[in-house]
Amino acid sequence: MPVPAQLQDAPLARARAVLAAAAVLCSAAVSGTALAVRDAGTEAPALHARVMSPDARPDAAAQAPAGAAYFVRHLTNPRERREQRADILDAPALPGSVVKAVTLVTALETGVVTAETGAMCRRVVTVDGVRFVCAHPDLKRPLTPAEALGHSCNDFFVSLAPRLPRDQVNRTRLAAGLPPLPSSARLAPALVGLDGPRVTPRALIDVLARLTGAGTDPPVPMRATTKAVLLEGLAGAASYGTASALRERGVTAWAKTGTAPMPGGGVAGVVVALVPAPRPTHGLVVVAPGAAGLDAAAIAADLAAAAGPAAAPSARPTTGNMIRLGRTTATGAVRVEALDIDDYVAQVLAGEGQPKAADAAQQALAITARTFALANRDRHRREGFDLCDTTHCQVVKPATPVTRRAAATTAGQVLLQAGQPAPVFYSASCGGRLERASQVWPGAADLSHPDRDEADANEPPWFAEIRVADVERALRAAGLRGGRLRGLRVLQRNQSGRVIRLRADGFSPPEISGNDFRTAVGRVLGWQHVKSTAFDVDRTGNGYRFRGRGFGHGVGLCVVGAGTRATRGDSSEQILRFYFPTLTIGRSAVAPLRADAAAATAPRPESPPAPAPAAAAAAPATATPTPAPATDVQIALPVSEEPARASLLALVRRARDQMAAATGLKAPASLRVTVHPTVESFGRATGRPWWTSGATSGSDIALLPVTILQQQGQLERTVRHEVAHALLDGALAGRPLWVREGAAIYFSTDADRAPRSSSGRVTCPSDAELLQASSAGAQRDAYARAEACFARQILAGRKWTDVR
């Protein structure tokens, strides 16, 4: 329920009314004994856009919404203070997620996690009988501890409970000014502030001040590395996380939000902040009954801005022909780098295009990708960059000579609408029928051709069989309520044949849109199941069988169709004219790069750096953190599997060294291994089917959970296979996929064994058989034939590097 535009700058009376109405809706955020814990901003109304007039003066700042309480005080001068609603400020209550800062310090000090730990969020998890839900953005990559604090990831913190000693938690709590946890308090809920002793909201300023070393109270003892992570996380919360309203109002801060039960019933949003960072002079706490933490942060942002503490400079938009890319690092952090737009486009073509497509198709996609980038340049401005490197924006991979040539050939060319870069889209495959943008995103302009695309009509259909229980899980994830699914059928299709509405008998409401259903299945089970909304569904003995065409939303340029058209001889102009008949190809309006443009677009961190305490006061807010030293193997593990780090690291190194010796290849300088917490998480990130155990791209290896691989007896075999790909794929680039798979199986099974001969005639599998196998059995057969074909040539005396 977003705030209407007319309310954003409305008088405070209307803001109070909105907050009052929120109380009814937010009361559902915490209910029953099995609490569905949703952190700041999850199921609450999106009131954070504005709750005070942006023109509020200091004398009006004390007029926060009547239902909200706030306390602002100088950190060293106790006489300088303002407050409202002392009845709320002095009523002991559960502190909610504010306590996560204490939990993080304890975990780092005890060595349960380190600054480099990476943890994939499972989104929903039950610990100690409590159901915890995460509603922060699904980054589809591991979170660092600092990011987990900034995004307030419930899964990260409750997963610490089995390994975090209660006495160590109490030691940190006491040093921070919180009462210790009694033995009766459930540890997992207590680690996120939803069990244990109550504390008055006004005391939370002192807690955060002791943790950060601000103010006059003795600081909580901790190592410099621990404090660096803590400050990075608190600054991240105020920059890109649950308290980002502070940054939107130009306020730098160390902050933490929470949403917690109120003593008299209902919930309240809480935020505690120290401003300005990195040398705070004031502390403030806001409690907003009936709202969420991010709503309290919006009130705090207005109070802080009106009070006049130093503010951070707002993010500067990119100028010239540069793009600020938020690139995900191996540790899960985001590194911002400035790229020339054509370098960026070349990397997008490598990530989104067809490697072997003809030049015309490469050029058509280059123009489309450049247009998308310029039209969406400020998509991540709040985070300090323009575009990310995931499917949320455009996927990037290392550029190739082909993609660089396409970017250079089309330099400056974009698709224009009224003289400006048009809001264009593209997808992998439309399945023979293009889709209108307005059918996918209501209100979007229909710029593409809403008709058949015979160039993509011959792509084979996809099939998926999903169990009833898994369909039910997806429906519940989409917000439907029900115990048992009695039937699922298509109710309505649009002009392109895609599903508009489905009926789910047994659930309430009984209908769901095709796009919402596909999104829910993708997030819960993986995007490889229901690849588009152009599908039919039939009941089977155990679930539902889906048969469909295409991959993606089908709007705009079709990458596969463009490739087919280029093969037929169409030029890039003809391809674009077909897919975007109402647009013209012209030159972009970006200015040439000037001498000062590099400085204007230089990388800036998502949050202020967190140096050692002695250096923090002197470090400028925009300084770039010193990168961690590179290692030969970097592993990102779920927190629950952290004990497996040493053995997994040894296994990866051993496999790498053995296969390097067997093949004569030089081992990669660095391998990055990401262990996913669930099968669903692995599928979402890699796009691989459920029966796949690992996936490798370059030197990046993704694995199923270690515990699952161990239970299946597949851990060592999977690791060796994926490490083999990391070593061999570069040397075998350009060969059929069966060569690369056969080599990986051959060397990973036993690097020293003699070649095994194959009996009978063996047909080498096609790329489609290996990549798009209809079942686990079909894929096993394809892999076996790949190895047999590879071994056959080895037995014939051919060097492995010459197998083709």
Named at the architecture level, the CATH assignment of the largest domain is 3-Layer(aba) Sandwich
Structural Rg: 28 Å
- State the oligomer: single chain
Biggest sheet, open or closed, and with what strands and sense?
5 strands, antiparallel
Quick one: how many beta strands?
26
Spatially, the strands of the biggest sheet line up as 3-2-8-7-6
Helical stretch tally: 29
SS strand fraction: 15-25%
Q: Tell me the CATH topology of the largest domain.
A: Beta-lactamase
By secondary-structure content and strand pairing, the structural class works out as alpha+beta
Average pLDDT metric: 78
Termini Cα gap = 58 Å
Q: Any low-confidence stretches, pLDDT <50, length ≥5?
A: 1-63, 309-320, 590-630, 751-755
* Helix content, binned percent: 25-40%
The CATH class label of the largest domain is: Alpha Beta
State the shape: globular
Mind telling me the CATH superfamily name of the largest domain?
Answer: DD-peptidase/beta-lactamase superfamily
How many domain units? 4
